[in-house]
Structure formats: C-alpha cells, structure tokens
Fold each of these.
Amino acid sequence: MADITKGVRAFTVGTVISRVFGLLRESVFAFLYGAGRSTDAFVAAFRIPNLLRDLFAETALSAAFVPILTAERQKSKEQQNLLASNVFNILLIVVGLIVALGIVLVPYLVKLIAFGFGDIPNKQALTASLAAIMFPFLLFVALAAWAMGYLNTEREFFFPSVAPAFFNIISIAIPLLSYTHFLRQGIDPIYAMAYGVLIGGLMQFLIQVPILFSKGFHYKLYVNFKDPSLHRILVLFVPVALGLAASRINVAVDTFLISFLEERSMTWLNYAFRIMHLPLGLFGIAVGTVALPTISKYVVEEKFDEAKSTFFDSLQLVFFLTITTSIILAFLSQPITRLIYERGRFTSFDTYATTQALILYIIGVPFIAGIRNVAAVFYAYRDAKTPMYASFISVGLHVIISLGFMRIIGFRAFPLATTIASFVNLAILMRKLPSKIGQFELSLLVDYFVRLVIAAIIAGFAAILLHRLLINFLDYSFATRIMNLGISGITASLVCYVVCLMLGVTEAKDYIRRLFRK
C-alpha cells in the first residue's frame, strides 16, 4: 500500500495558502459590496462560466486525463508529452469556441438561469454584462486544470494546489485598486470584481507553466482527434462530463429558483458555500486528488490488492479529516462568519442568514469528500458510468427537495438538499464498489464513521463553550477574535484526538503521525 499522506500534506499546505487568500477575497468582497442587487448579479454571472468549469476543468478533466496520462507515462516521457500537448491544443480549440459562443449568447443565458431578476430594473442587464467579461475565465481555468493533471502524474501536488492563490490575489488587488475609479466614472464598481476574476484566472494557469517545464514537459504543435489515447480519455470524459452536466444543471436550476426568493438569498448562499469549501478543499479534494494517480498506477500495473488497500486508507483518512473539522466548524460557524464577513456593508443580519446556510452545507462535507474518493476508484478502473448514474439520481433528489422546501424554509432548502443528495450519492457508490474491488466489511467503516462523529460533536461543544468563555476576558478587536477562534479550534482538535483514542479510533494516532512526519 502506498502512503499518500506526503502528497496530501503538500496539497493541503498549498490549498491552505489558496483558501486563506480565498477567504480574504470574500472578506474584501463583503466589505466593498455587502449583500444586494450588484452582488446577486455578480454571483449569478460568475455561475454561468462556472456551469461549464467542472466539465473542462478540475473534476472531469482530471478524472479522465490523469489515469490515461499515467499509463502513457509508464511507456515513455515522449508519449506522455505527445498526449499532453494534444489535449492542451484541443482544449484551446474546443473551449475557445465555447467561450466565444457563450459571450454571444450570454443575454439569453442570463434570462434562462436568473429569470426572477427580470422583476428588478437593470438587474438582468448587469448580470449579462458581468458574465460576458468573465466568460474567458473558463478557458484559463481549463488550461490550469490541464497543467494540474500533468503535474499530478509527476507526483507534484504543492504547486497546482497553490496556483489558485494567485487567482485570489489578483481578484483582491484589482477591486481594491479600482473601486474608487469606477465610482468616479459613474460605473458600478462590481465590474472590478469581474475583471479581477478574468485576469486572476489567467494568472492561475501561467504560474504553473515554469513548473511544467521543470518536470520535463515539452510542448508539441500536435492536434490529432483520432489519437487512440485521446479516445480513451474521451471514453472516461464523456460519462464524467454527463454526470457533472447533471450537477451543473442542478446549479442552474438552483440559481433560477433562488432568483425568486428574497433579495440577498443568492449572496448569503454564496458566502456560506465559500466557507464550506475550506475543509472540503483542504482535506476532501486533497486526498482524492492524491489518491487518483496512485490508485491508477496500481491498476495499470495490475496490483489490485494494493489499489484496494490504498483506497480504504485514503477513505478513512478523508473521513478522519473532514468529519472532525466540519463538525467543529459547524459549532463555531457564527463567530467564523462574523470574523470573515461582518464589516463595511455586511450586517449582523447577513451574518445570521449566512450562518444558517453554512451549518446545513457543512454537514454534507464528509459525504461530498467521500464521493470524490470513492469515484476515484471507478475512474482508475476506467468506469465513469457508475458515478454518472449516481450523480443523476442525486441531482434529481436535490431538485425535488429544493422545490419541496424552498417556500417553507426559503434559501435554507438549497444547502439542506445538497447535503441529503450527497449522502445518497455516496451510498449508491458504496453499494456498487464491490464490483470493482471485491467484498469488504461496510459495517466496520460505518462504525468508524459514527465514532468520529461522536468525538467531533464532543469537541465541537468544547470549542463553542471555550469561545464564549474567552469572550468575557478578551476585547472585541479583530486580532483577539482571531486568537479566540484559534485557541478554541486548537483546543477542540486536541479534545477530538483524545476522545478518538478513548473510543478506540486508533487510526487517529497513525494519521497524525504520518501527516506531520518529515
């Protein structure tokens, strides 16, 4: 069994840097723009290129590209570089054409996914204008994902994971530097955010280019749509893309439905979603990203027992990391939301609404992370259809729950639907998993999951009690609030570790040792 913790540690460190700048970006966004008409328009506009992002960027491209590129690497470096160049050039052509078409059709796309904005003067027009500016972001992020896939096959995980930090830095700098300029010109300063996204996306790709060449990549002007290796990628890519298309349609449906709810609903959900992605990105995506090339390598070499043991090690690791951090964050959700967002035009009521959405989102993080890791096994075995079918079912369930509850609990229906649908998706994949890796004791995994939940809930209570106690002894400055959350979080982590050992979760000691050793 391969020890993937070194790669997870490198990916997590890079992601921590990226996520810190991401939260800073959201904090600046909240400070400058608050929650209102313009922020709703920006969020809806950014979702339009993001509807296609998973298809041509991180998820689908990596799932299809990495296993095949790993196989080509086993043959020779020249074969690896030829396939990588072919995929790069085809991405430029295909995604470039989609971007051009998207810019032309953007007014109609806005009317389709944000129909409810039509009741508010100029809101659809603003959304369309912002979306047209940001549409090339799709091409840049697709190329960045291509670079990440190549580097992952070379066992390089830090630089691809830290690249989004440069996107966030640019997205912070441009609004801060140009906000006043736009105001003086009589232009809505939300446009500064759109230009920040555009230039930041380009930087996310360019920052990886020097590392690509240092790892032996040599670009070739080669385009071959009949390449057998490209066909193998497409065999994996199409079902993954269809499954993700279903989830992206789900996002479009959500956007359409949310546009009919009270103003600011879309912005509250977006802010909550950003915080939820902290534990998901740091741990859930990290483990899945590192596990995929490792398991793919074992499958290519027909070392199926090694592939199975590596998978279960990665799944237990991702549950250990995401269950503990997510539950502790849920208990501390209100002070965390207040710390990150509540300043400038972002009010205490915005904090209250965002916190409610965050709690419902964050409960589903272990399930979403589990999906990514279990799906990696199917992709390594060149089976993308099973995850696709599971995605279809979960998306349908998500829409049903959202429609059923949105008039009862408002915007809260959407994160609730996300969590429930993610659980069902994971359950389906686990049910089908024996067909790939053979029989296993599911009850042992469930028992492990439950014990982690118990330990994390006890730690969560410890965190919030300590936080409230420290409030009585500390002032309300920004620095002391950070210190309070830091002390509460670290204490909760120690409590969680001790309770895990008391409950017999011996894996906790092993994972901590492996994650922190040199």
Note: The chain has a mean pLDDT of 83.
Amino acid sequence: MHTVRLPALTLLPLLALCVHGRAALARPAGRPVAPNVILIVTDDQGYGDVGAHGNRMLSTPHLDRLHAESVRLTNFHVDPTCSPSRSALLSGRYSTRTGVWHTIMGRSLMDPGEETLAEVFAAGGYRTGLFGKWHLGDNAPLRPQDQGFERAVWHHGGGVGQGPDHWGNDYFDDTYDVDGEWRSFDGYCTDVWFREALAFIEAQDERPFFAYLSTNAPHGPYLVDESYVRPYLEAGVPPTLAQFYGMIANIDENIGRLRARLEQTGLADDTLIVFLTDNGTAAGHARREGEEGTWEGFNAGMRGHKGSPYEGGHRVPFFAHWPAGGLGGLGGGRDIDALSAHIDVLPTLAQLCGLKRSGARHLDGVSLAVALRGEAPAPAGRTLFVHSQRVEVPRKWRQSAVMTERFRLVDGRELYDVLEDPGQTRDLAQEHPARVTALRARYEAWWASLSQPLGETVRIHLGGVENPASLMSHDWHTEDRGTPWHQNHVRNGYVGNGPWAVDVQRAGEYELLLSRWPLQLERAMDVVQASVSVAGSELTLPIEPQATRARFVLDLPAGPTELLTTLRRGSGEEHGAYFTAARYLGAPSKR
C-alpha cells in the first residue's frame, strides 16, 4: 500500500502562514472587474454520492457546506459517460456535434473548431488553467493547450494509468503532462490537481482566473490511501464501495482545503465556484456481487448508473456558489428545479462573467444566469437529449433519453413520468401513445440535425506543431469494443487492430517508429514482422525478436488519411503497434 502524506485540515492555520514556500497572499489592490471562476468536475460520482443528497453513509462535510451555501440545479443532466459530457460542457453544444460520442476508438476526440470555455475566458482577458482530466484528445490540435488553456497539468487518456498516460502511473507519485512536458510529482493524484490549481490561483497576476479542476477520481481503479477507506470498511461498507467512498472523502477534504485557502487570501468573495460531475455513479449504486458488507449503496432513489439512459446515468449534482458582493454574486441556499444540462454551462458562465463568444457555431445550451441570480425563472418547456453510444458509428435510439420537465422517453419506446415516478418503475408508453409519438418526433428532428458530424472524423495532426506525434491504440478506429485502451491491455498483449485517423500537415519525409511498448522503455517486442499502411503506401519489414521498435521512412502527401500498423509474433498472431511515433523529417526525399 502506498502511503500518502497530507497536511490535515487542522494544519490550515499553519498553511495560512506559508504555502508553496511563500507568505500568504493579500487581496490584490483593487477588485477584479469580473469574478474568478473555479469549475470543479469529478469523475463517475453520481447524484447519490453526496451526503447532502441523502447518503447517510458517505461523509462529505465540505461538499455539504458548499451545497448549503449554493444555488442548486436539482434537475441537471449530462451524458452518461465521460468524454461526451466534457465536450458538451466545454462547448455548450451536444457532444455528438463536437465529434465525441465514445470514450475511446478515436471518438473521444473533440473537433478543434469548437470554441471552448477556455477560449471564451481567454478572449475575455482571463488566465486559464486545466488541472487533472481532459479526455478529449492527447495529440495536436486537440490538447488543452491547443484549446485555450495557457496552463495545463494533466494526465493523458481517460484516466491515470490508461494507455496514453505516462507508463506506470498508478495515482501515487506519478508523472503528468505540464504544458507539453512530462514532470514527476509527489503525492496522490487528486491532491496534486488541487495543489497545482492553488498555485495557479495564487500566482501574482492582475487578470481574473478560470481554473478547470477536473479530477480523475473517483473513476476506477479505486485507489486511495487506506486511511480514507478504513472508516467505511468498519461501518460495513463492501470493499469496492469503501474504496470509492474513500476517494470521494479525499476529494471532499481537498474542496475544504481549497475553500479555506480562498477565504484566507481574500479571494472567496470574488470567486464563483461551480461543482458538478460527469455522469452517474460508477460504484455507489449497489453492493457488488460476492462482496461482504451491510451497506447496499445509495442512488438517491434513481434507476440506472453510469452509461445508462435512465435517470441514474445522467442526472448529477450542480452547485453554483458566489457570495453576494460588489461584483454581483448569486446568494445561495436555494434550489432551481427546471430542466437543465451540461450544454448550459458555457452560455451561463459567459453571461455571469460578461464574456462574448465568437458566435461561429450555434449553441444548443441556454444561459441560466438570471435564474441563478434569482432575477427570473429558468427557461421552461425545454426538450433535452442525452445518449450513450460507445460504438464507432452512432445508432439511432441507442441508450437514449428524451427529457422534458415531466417525462422521459427512454430508447424511443419506454415512457416515464419522473414527477410521479422518479424511480422510473412504471412504463406509461402504452397508456400515452400520443405523447410517445410527439417525443419521438422531437428526437427524430434532433437526430437529423446531427447528420453532418456523424459523417465526419476528428483527426490527429502529423507534422504540425507537435513533432513527433506519439500515438496510442486508445485512439484506433475499430468496431471491436475491446480496443486496447489501458496499459494492462498492452501488458497482456491484447490481439486487435485498427487505424488512426490522421491529417498530414506537411507533405514530406516522415519517420514512423512502431512498438509494442512505450518507446522510452526500450523493451524487446518479441515480434518477427512489422507492417505499415498509410496514404496508399504499404511497407513490410522483418524484425528481430529482441528489437524494441520497427523504423519506417516514407514520403507522405499532405491531407487526411488513415495510418494502420501491424506487428506479427512468432506464433503468427497479429496485432497493431500499440505505440507509434510519427516525425516529420523534411522535404520529400529524392529516392
């Protein structure tokens, strides 16, 4: 078991004297003209995974305090999985419009033409920082630094330890990407994200800040110091759920530390904090089969969990806290029950902060700023849509929910009245066929509006600002749902293949290095043949089993193409090169 050494909350008075080796900051002279913004998004934490929502087992005192002091959107929805929710959150547009409808297979890559929250804030004079999870592309032009963040401390892939992430990361004392360079950190991942966010927040800079604090916790694997887990095991919580709760307890502690620091530095009154999660609970809804424990889990009475089209898959917490003061504020301690969603966050924050968009692309979301301020009701009569696809090409009606204030049409055939039946136990489709028909028609119109993005592919750039581009099988395009997206798949030698969708930025000579292992490991591949197919060229080379890589040099024309690699083992089994580095060398060769 790794040991995490954290300052206890009782040490906060001492921390107030010295943080990061510097004296505590005084409030800068003069108030900012717009509020600072901290957007906190946790991963796989559901609506029921907050004490204030009725979970009598999980202790979240700092989240509970934030809940008590915030304006709460109690009917707030996201997509049922990670990347889609994040793309919609950052763009104000339905995730599928941005090119994102999966978490792997090249379908978690967000169209670089989307105008992100970070770009809107940066254009409005804010400094912008991301800390933690991105999961919208690890290569140019899709990285956070390509999409409006001037500071980015993040892990690659969809979670710490996944295939594109730094090899060997395991949540403790890991190596993360800092503005394009790998850097080692001490401590537990969540603590690192909050610590780095605080350093960014406290930097001497007159500009207001936008900090996107996006934790990978409590996403699996469920790893956290045992001190956070032990109280739950002793209370009868099954082991997996105890680990999950322990990760949330650590997040809660960090939120408490963050808020205390904002108060100590005089920033609290000028800072808007928004807390939400990216999908329904992954582990908190029920006890896992075969595990001992008396606690059965808690899902706030909702049906479904992460990935589900039912309420438990996509209804999540949303708290907005901004103390009333000279800059405006929101008040707090009240609920807004109107239907709302992730697509509303960008227009809402833009209006609250007085920011303008370029307007190049139509938003699906609406601003809830006046409702959050208590000046007028939230928009009514809306119909919203979420779906979970997790396939190469989306399928109509798959894992979908059409939502109105009162009704949910699930998968195009089940109808639920969530005001009378919040647990979605009684299907009313046979009793209300006209309503089903009306909601199906709204879905059909929405689906038709997605026809253009469904026919497009977001591509990784070769030979552009990132040279070399380091590719990983996480982003292969394939119908095979077993795509090797995790480091354990690589260790186990998963047999599968698919192409990367790429766009060659400059015609010329390119070096392609194919490997079964991360290139920096210099580990024998134990393969006898390597092949590459790209832009109409197909090349094959014999390989010695002890070789650590296969090297190809070839001329590539500029433009979109697919890059397919193959490694053949001595047994005859073939699979793609899990790792490939593509480097532009220069003008086309004269061979």
Note: The chain has three domains: 9-379, 385-454, 460-586.
Amino acid sequence: MKEHSLLKVTIDGADYAYPKGTPYAQIAADVQKNKRYPILLVNRDGKLCELHKTLDRDCTLKMLTAEDKPGMLTYERSAVFLMLKAFYDVAGRENVQRISVEFSISHALFVRAAGNFKLDEALLSRVEARMRELAAQALPIHKQSINTDDAIALFQQENLLDKARLLSYRINSHVNVYTLDGFTDYFYGYMVPNTGYLTCFALQIFEGGFVLRLPDQKNPGELAEFKPSFKVFRELYDATIKSDAMNVSNVAEMNEIISGGNSTQMILAHEALMEKKIGDIAQEIASRKDVRFVMIAGPSSSGKTTFSHRLSTQLLACGLKPHPIATDNYFKNRVDTPRDENGQYDFEGLGAMDVEQFNADMSRLLNGETVEIPQYNFKKGIREYTGDYLTLGPQDVLVIEGIHGLNDQFSYSLPKESKYRIYISCLTTLNVDDHNRIPTTDARLLRRIERDARTRGYSAKATIQLWPSVRKGEEANIFPFQDSADTIFNSALIYETALLKPYVEPLLFDVPRDCEEYLEAKRLLKFLNYFLPVPADDVPKTSLTREFIGGGCYKV
C-alpha cells in the first residue's frame, strides 16, 4: 500500500519516487550535489514553486539556482528582506521613517533611508553585521496568505503606507505576506526558505544613500565588482527626485492619479519634462560651434529613432539644419558579415559594420565634399546607392543613430570636437512600492513586445526568446561606452507601463504554457496586474511612447 502512495518525480532525465507531501526542499537537498550553486526554487512543469511547498502529484522538476533569472531575482528579493529586517533591528523601528529601494546600478541596489539616525559607515557596518548574524541562524522566512483588508490594516499600523495604498487597488481577496523573525512585509515574487541561503552581500555608503551589493547571475558565488556609471546614476537619481516632487514615486501614487481622473495632467507634465530636456540638449549642441556629428546610441527599445526626430526638431528651432543618418546603412553586405560562435550572423558586433566606408564618407563631408549616402537593403542583404547626395553647409549637422555611436573605433577619423555623443536608455524610476523595484529591463522588454507584434508580426514568445541574446549584445557593444557620452538621456516616461498594459497583456496571455518563455510571460502579467490602465487618447503624437504603440507623427 505504501508503495502505491509514492509519486514519480523526474529530474534531469532521472526518475525518483517520493511520498506525497514531501517538501521540495528535501528533494532539492537530495540532488544538490549535481548543482554548482544552492538550489533556490523549483520549476514544476512550468510553474515556479518555493522550496517550502510540498509534492502533490507526479511531475518533472527543474532545479533553479542564482544562475537562472528567477533564482537570481529570488536571491535579490530575499537579500532586500534581510537588509530591511537588520536595518530596523539596528536603527530601531520607531526611528525609521522610510527605507526605499530605488534602482539597480552595477550589480547593486541603491537605497535611500530617512529617519532619526545618522546614515554613515558605522551604522551600515552594524546593519551588515546584523544581516550576517541573522543569516548564520538560518531563520525561516514564513509565507502566509491573509485577507487583503487585514494586510492593509497591518501595513497601516506598521507605517508602511505605500504597501497599504498599493494593496487597496488589488481585487484579490487574499494576498501573500512574508515574515522574518517578527517582521512582516509584502513582496512581488518568491523568497528563499530561510536566511541561511543568503551568504553573498555587502553594504556600502554611496551618494547620499547606500548600496546593497549582490552577486552577478554569471557567478553567483562571489560578490560582483561595484563599478557604477556616475552619469547613469545621476540621471536615475535626478529622475527619482523629480518623481517624488510630482508625487508619482510608486504604482499606488500613480493609480490614485489615474482613478481620480487626473491622468491627462500627469501625462502632459512628464511629456513637458522630456521635451525640456531635449530642448536643453539641442541648445548645448548649438552652443558648440565645432559640432557637426550628433552620435546617438543606446540599448534596444530605448526610443532612439523618435528621440532623434524630436532632437532634430529642436535643433531646427536653434537655427541648425539636422540630417538623420542611420548607421544601419553602413552594414557590410551580408556575405561579408562575421558569424558568432553558433554560426549565426553577428549583426551586433562592430565587425558587421563597414567602418572604413563610414569614416571615409564622414571625413569627406567634414571637408565640404558632396557624398552619396548609401541605403541598406535588408531584404537583399546589400548596401545600395540611390542618389541620396549630401553636402554639409555651415549650419548642417548629422544626427547619427546606431548601437556603435559612442564607440570611438566606429568614428575614429572624426575629430573629437566635431562629435556630440548622447547615450539614451529607458531608466525607469517608478517602483511597485518602497521595497519592490521595477527593473529597467522590464520596461524595455514590454516596449519591444508591443512594437515587435505591431510592426514585425512577432509573438511575445518570440520576443522573449530573443531577449537574452539582445541583452548580450548590449553588454558587449553599448554599456561599456555609456560613460563616454556628453550627456545621458532618460527616455522613460512615468506613465508608460500603465499605457502599455492593455496592449501587452493579450500578447503575454498568448504565450503557451508548455514553453520556456511562459515563466517570463507569467511574471510580466503578474507585474502588470498592479497597474490601472491609462488610455492613449491624451498621449501626444510626438511622444516617445508612440514609437511602440503607434499613432505617432514621425516615420519610425
């Protein structure tokens, strides 16, 4: 009889038998020897499960570590929980007004803390020591489902008002909360079973706050190097302060604005902020009399094309004559394109570009000569010349957009003073609440899912599948050059996730449950569930978001 009560569990092609009710933590312990890093979660037939959950059916399990994205997110989230508990223990709960986990920078999370304490190395040293003490005790992290109204009352009582306001927009009757040694919090996502799993972290004072340093997904056994881009940090920090001033620092505050019928004013205010920044950049370019080449680069779905059009409009207003040029037109013919380690064409690397021809053409233009600008025929895979001639006059500037724009090897022949370099990225600063940040990559992925579906006919599954290779190309060809930019332009609009929600949700629901991309689609759907939608009616035709949802006045 006991034999028949065993359930079949398949792991890495091998079959095991366990009694019903066996915790996944026990099964993970039995196969841990096959893994380089600690198992943090299990994927049961396409569903993520925490290790405290128990076996209830025959299934196939995939063990996830911090080398896997869901595992790394779980580690990060749990480390934040540990940090918060330790900070409250050291500073005293009654002395803490607010701890806000703002954004990620260089394998670390930037945190602001306010209250009746002095934030310095001495305090952080005590907080980190307390974190290590709690980790050494392997204290359990308890998960509990409670009535949503009870959760709201609990967080109001604990002065975590951002969470109480967030949950007031949840239609679910129950929510999951986590408790660590008497401290209860709400998190978007999964947790490790106990604090013993958290061994790799550090705290460090940084720019008016501090950072919680973490390992990298590529090597989760070691603390990652902290080498922040101060230009990117300053742009993120300034955007955070502006959002605070406009009372839109988290999803709950934005939901209140939308539900109160004030979304139009919010949209127009943030669009005005962006237009002012573009105008300021144009004025700075115009003030530099030697600038003839405006080089724009940034990661996928940053809105480079719309930005280049809007910048060109502002340059016209400054008395200049802008001419857009896409570096894609200087791709090598496909037969000459190098291939990657998998034998696929490597269109992302500098080797895919005809660097010599680009420099020859730009140098001739700089010398006052007339040049025929090529057009790349992507269907045929060849560069073509169709009579597009250009000569630079005294007021002419070229607005050049492409992933290698900041790499001096791409424009090696052009004098430094003739170039103005702009790094553009979607650096979102809106967070779910004070303790749950929104990764910048999520904002860009949502943009790309909608644009790919609308303009290329791609499914959300196909876009999600391609995303890791896109990110790999960005890390090699774009991010290393961001600090060489003359300015950083943040293309994130505070309202855009609420705008994208009704567009992207149907695409994500279409991702099949039996494919690897389903986990990411489900995570994004849960994330979008926090937002009230905002209609596109009041979004200007010049808005950068129009590049993704359509209806804009620019040809993109």
Note: The chain has a mean pLDDT of 95.
Amino acid sequence: MLRSVKPELHMMHADRSGRAPLLLALALLALLTAVAMLTRPLTPIDETRYVSVAWEMWLRGDFLVPYKNGETYSHKPPFLFWTLHAGWALFGVNEWWPRLVMPLFSAFALLSTARLAGRLWPQHAGLGGHAALVLSGTLLWIVFSTSLMFDAMLALWVLLGMHGVLDAAEGRRRGFVLLGLAIGLGVLTKGPVILLNLLPITLLAPWWNPGLAWGRWLGGVMLSILLGAAIALAWAIPAGEAGGEAYRNAIFWGQTADRMVESFAHRRPFWWYLPLLPVLLFPWFVWPGLWRALARERRAGFDRGLRFCLAWMLPVLIAFSFISGKQPHYLLPLFPAFALMSARVLSVGRATRVTMPALLALALAAGLLLVASGRIASLRDEMVALPPFWPGAGLALTALVAGWAGWRGVRPLATLAVLGAATLATVQLAARPALAPQYDIRPLALAIRAVQDEGRPVANIATYHAQYQFLGRLERPLVELRGDEAARWLADHPHGYAVVYLKDRQRFDTLPARHKQAYRGGWAALIDARTAAGSPGYGVE
C-alpha cells in the first residue's frame, strides 16, 4: 500500500509550484511552432490574405486603413496588421515574424490561464501550470496557436477580460478598466464578437459570485462597454474619414450587417459543434477519467471557480450553436475555461488510465503507416505524394508509451499533453509531401512579380484573395476578372498576362504557360493574354 502512495505524493509535492507543467506547456508550444514553420507555408487563402493586407498597408505607409489589392479592406480591424508592422519595423520585412505572432500570443494566453487558475483556486497550489498544460495539449488550440488567424489573439483579450471581471467581483474598480480594455482590444482585433465572449459571464455574476450589489455591478459593466467603445472609436472615426464613405459605412454598419447575413446564409444545424468536440478537444474529450472526475465534482457541488468557468463557456457555446455560420475556431476563446475546469477537477483523486486516447492515437498511427506503405489504392494518384514511414512509427511509439504510463499509474496530464502535441506534429509531418506542393504558392507569386517588373499588367481570372501580394512582394494590384469582363480585358491587353485555374489535368499539361503548378487540389497557371483569350472557360478558384 505504501509503495503505491509514496510515488504519487512525491509527484504532487514535486510540482507544487506548477512551474514544471507550465514550462512543459511552453516547450510544447515552441516545438509545435517549429514543426509548423518547417512543414507548412503561409497557407492560402486566409493566411496569405492577412499578411498581404499588412504588406499593402506597409507599402503605402498607411497604418490607419487596411487595403487589399488596392481597395479598402473592411472585413477585419487592424490590430493583427499592426502587430505584423511592429515586427517588420524591428526586423525588416520578412516571413518568419508573421509566423511567430500567434505563438507569442498563445504563450501569453498560457501564462494568463495559469495566473487565472491561481486566482480562482488559491488553495490548490500549482494548479495554474496544469491548466496551461491541458490547454497546450488540446488539438484545436495547437492548430490555431500556429496559424496566422485572429482567434488566439482574441482568446488573450478574453482572458484579460476574465481577469477584469474577477477583479471587479472582488471589489477592485480597476477590474472594470481591464474589462473595458479587453473589449476595446477585442473589437480592434475581430470586431464586436468580443462582447459575445465577455458579457454572458457578467450577466451570470450573481450565480458564480453571490452577494454582488447588482445595480453597481451593471453600472460598472456599462462603463466598461463605453470604455471599450471609446478605444475602438479612437481608430474607427479617423479611419472612416480617411477611407471614404464606402469604407466608413462598412466599418460602422455594413460589416456587422453583412456578417450577420453571411452567418445565416451558410446554414449549419444547431448540433454541428457536438460531433466535432471529440476531435477539437483531443485528447482530453475522449479520456473517461476526465468525465468521471467532473461527475464527482458535480455530485459534491461546483465551487465558485468551476461556476465561473461554466458561466464563461456554456452560454457562449450555446450562442454560437444558434448562429448558422459556424466555424471550429470560433470556439477557441472558450478553451482556457475548459482547461481550467479540467485541471481543477483532476487536482483531486487518484491518477487514472489514459487507454482510450492512446488507442485512438495508435489507430491514427496505424492509418498513417498504411498510407505510407502505399497499400491504399485511392492514394496512388499522381498528385498525391505518399508520406514518409517514420511519422506514423513515431506516433505509434508515443501512443504505446502513453498507454504504458497510464497503466503504471503515472499522473496523466503531462502524458496526454505530449500525446496531443505529438498527434498534431505527426499529422503535419506526414501530410507535408502531399500538401506542400498544393499550398506553397511562392513560385507563382514570384513569377507574377517578374511579369510586373517587365511593365506588363496581370489579371486574376477568379475571385482574388490577394494571396500573391506578400509572397511575391508585389507593388501593384492584380486585376480581378469574372465572367464576360475577362474576355474584354484580355482583348484590350494583348501584352498582358493572366492567372487561370484549372481542374482538368490533361488541359493543364498541354497549356503553354510562363509558370504553372499544383494549387489547392487543382492547378494554376500564369499565361499570356493571347493564350487565355484563345482558350476561354477556365475554372474559377
């Protein structure tokens, strides 16, 4: 009996400060950032679009109004673009800084999550490091911590707002200032969606923090909203004046209205998120030990910290479920709440086995090994390069070690976090041979730059997302052509060039082109205007 208890007590004492799991969480983030930078290019359409908007602002010397391909860009506020400019001002224009921005914000989010855990449960020493470790090993968090998107940045502002809410509930007026600052920075990052992430927990404050003076509380929240609005308007008013009437209408009303219409135009059912949760929250969601621990806490009665996390997470999840235009990354700001809850309920009770996540990782490893062996006939298409053998073998070894550790009674947080990180790293390494040629569009962007340097105009015969602007360091926009206007432009510019997109491999092989390559499951080619005019009907990208 003493043998089984002493190692467990020693382990609990060893990470009483929480530093070891916090350092492990940051190390996993650094490792996955390196893997992403080695295996993934800046990926069209989203990543290349955002870095191109920042590039065009930089090129113009206009840091107030975002531009995309020569036109004002009202779809996103400028905070992300400003962070790219800050790095370029320090290090010169480069590609590596944009790849590091979101990992840096993710690292600050891990530290903020750890600190929030210490505030919610001061009696549980070291809990913050474990919460950060849960977060760093969760699959969706890993993906968007290493992608040039807005959600990891937004998650940090949500965490800042949660610290403010907690300060205000504990009687510190600065909390409302922090909440207002978080709202303002959130609006400058991704628009008013920050309010959907922050306001429900303030309205549910009497449930997780009984005894509040409700009138004063609502008054403080309203002042926070006004402060956030003032921060956002400090940019929006001068930007609206500088960008013109159309841009002004877009950022003050049109953007919000259009996004509401768009969100209901792409209808997804209410339950759409539910079947995704086992994947998004891998490996924690599929680990029975977590749900047993949560059920145990439910029977004992949720404490203040757990209620805080539920008030943060559940109303927002329900609200996003009612919005038809769902995307997995919309949920990212809720993941720190899940990590905090998980670390808290697992802080009591004995270690449990990690068999199920290990078995699923082992099944994925077996699938990767099967693909690498070329045994799956459907993957023998000439477009698809088979992955190397070793990533699957490495994941299989990691899964076996995780399973063995669980059977030996090792505390599972570190094991599962490493397993989650290893799973994503393996998938990226295995997919690189097939996906890199499809998504690395730098060669085409440089070919466009060479044509523009000759003084020739270039058109894009499809919707253009500015995907070539930064990678080619283009200084002139491309002409975006659709339908009948393409034929007219090609006839009027016989010395120009056009980027066209095809799905037919045979047509692609016989097409005379200045440059052509695989592109997102099809092909793209840079061809002269006469060739394009003589062979109309190219596929629209």
Note: Residues 355-439 form one domain.
